[in-house]
Amino acid sequence: MPPVTSPTSKPKKVRVRPVPAVSRAIAILRLLGRSPTPLGVKSIADSLGMVTSTCLHIVRVLVAEGLLRLDESTKRYSLGAGVLSLARSVIQTNPFPALAQPMLDRITEKWSVTTMASEILDIDHMVVVALSKPEAPFGLHVDVGSRFPTLISATGRLVAAFSRFPPDKIEKNLRSLKWASPPRLDEWRQEVELVRSRRFSIDHGNYISGVTLVGTAVFDTKGRMTHSLTAAGVADQMSEKAIKSVAMDLLCAADELTNLSPI
Fold it and tell me: Candidates 3.30.565.10, 1.10.10.10, 1.10.260.40, 3.40.50.620; correct CATH number of 20-85?
């Protein structure tokens, strides 16, 4: 069983002052990380709603730090090798993806579903840190490093059930999310209560039409939800029996990862 957490206890508030230059630099890195081809300064600036001269100053600093690479012949930018060293440091200091990967692979091979492990960054964002895709034609447009709203889909119900984010803040943020078929608030609340008792969540096509998602929570030694494990499959191919079987396998993996938590 995971450590018991109180959904009503409030985390200590930390005031974060906006630093526009930092936010813009991060936005540039994310944009180029998503782009299949290098981009020029004007394309970057237009995509992010930035003043071109401001964008130019920032990309020059990122090039100097090795985080971006400039092709002098085309004057286009792409991610630089410096990003690899940062990523390597993350992998070396965070064992969770390596621990989760073989568990995801086993579930994917057994049930032909896409499985992923996501780290909960805050109430607004989570990031995929490990991913396993089936050989079947079905697949989600997701990669390691993809960011999603924390409260969306099956993971959102887990966060509402087990995290220490204030319930009023959770419901306020919930209303701003984009769903294929948004759940009614009263139904969503009932589903959250059900998650607390059975320890897994299900999204029956609310987030993505025709796709069923099943999720479980991973906790640290202090009872804080840190990650989620999620399986996604074509709704027509996932019977109630199959969904419960996938959920049980995810629960076993989540419990094992919770027990391995170094924190």
Answer: 1.10.10.10
Question: Phi and psi (nearest 5°) for 177?
Answer: -80, 155
Sheet with strand 114-120: strands edge to edge: 147-149, 125-132, 114-120, 225-234, 211-219, 200-204
Q: 199 — alpha (psi -120 to 50), left (phi > 0) or beta?
A: left
Rounded CA gap, 80 and 59, in Å? 11
Q: How far apart are CA 167 and CA 161, in angstroms?
A: 9
Structure tokens belonging to residue 1: 């069983």
Residue 119, classified by CB atoms within 10 Å of its CB into exposed (0-12), middle (13-18) or buried (19+), is: middle
User: Which of 128, 150, 116, 136 has the alpha carbon at shortest distance from 232?
Assistant: 116
Query: Distance between CA atoms of 91 and 43, rounded to whole angstroms?
Result: 32
Q: List the CATH code of the domain at 94-259.
A: 3.30.450.40
Tens of pLDDT, residues 118-174: 999 889 889 899 999 998 766 677 888 888 999 999 999 999 999 989 888 998 888
Chain Cα centroid distance, residue 165 = 17
Residue the block writes with tokens 């059900």? 194
pTM (two decimals): 0.71
- CA neighbor of 153 nearest in space, from 129, 181, 133: 181
Q: Enumerate the CATH 3.30.450.40 domain ranges in the chain, comma separated.
A: 94-259
